[in-house]
Design goal:
Keywords: Signal. With about 130 residues, this protein is mainly β. Helices cover about 15% and strands about 50% of the residues. It is built from two helices and eight strands.
């Protein structure tokens, strides 16, 4: 678990030099979620999210996973972005609804995101918030 957290922090600092980038992080048990929002010079938003899961004690039937998704997001309002990405092998789309609330963000994933994620990883923050990293 510590390895995942250190890897996520490394990603955060690696992108820190990029102007207009905001990073959000959430750890929940064996899950680490990292959300990055980059504002380009023309105002477009690029959203990327990665999630890592390593089974812990009592999760012997679980499998480790590491998944990411990224692309240009549509700005729905001042506080909401939507990323919609098609699976490479299917006609399914994963949609992430990102809601920004000050120094926090929540993420809701569409049902078809399961084609991107497998069984144990999830982009959805399940009502909890990802905290902005400064």
């Amino acid at each position: 678990m510590k390895r995942i957290a250190y890897a996520a922090l490394g990603l955060l600092f690696a992108g820190a030099a990029q102007a207009g980038a905001e990073h959000y992080l959430r750890t929940a048990g064996s899950h680490v979620q990292h959300l990055k929002i980059v504002t380009q010079k023309n105002g477009d938003k690029i959203v990327s999210m990665d999630v890592d899961f390593e089974p812990g004690e009592g999760e012997k039937d679980a499998h480790a996973c590491s998944v990411d998704i990224s692309g240009e997001a549509k700005k729905v309002s001042d506080t909401e972005l939507v990323l919609r990405k098609q699976s490479e092998s299917e006609r399914r789309y994963c949609t992430l609804n990102v809601t920004l609330q000050g120094d926090a963000a929540t993420v809701k994933q569409s049902e078809d995101c399961s084609y991107f994620l497998g069984h144990f990883c999830k982009f959805d923050s399940e009502g909890d918030t990802l905290k902005k990293v400064r």
